[in-house]
Amino acid sequence: MADEEAKEAEAPVEGEIKQEQPLDPLAMKDWQIAELTEDLKRLQAEFDNFKKRSEKGWNERSRLATQRLMADLLAVLDSFDKALEDADDNCDGEHLKTGLANLQRQFYQTLQKEGLREIEAHGKFDPFMHEALTLEERDDAEDGKILEVYQKGYALGQKALRPARVKVAKKKEPEQPRTKEDHAHDDRTDHGQKSEEKEIQER
Question: Does residue 145 share a domain with residue 132?
Answer without folding.
Answer: yes
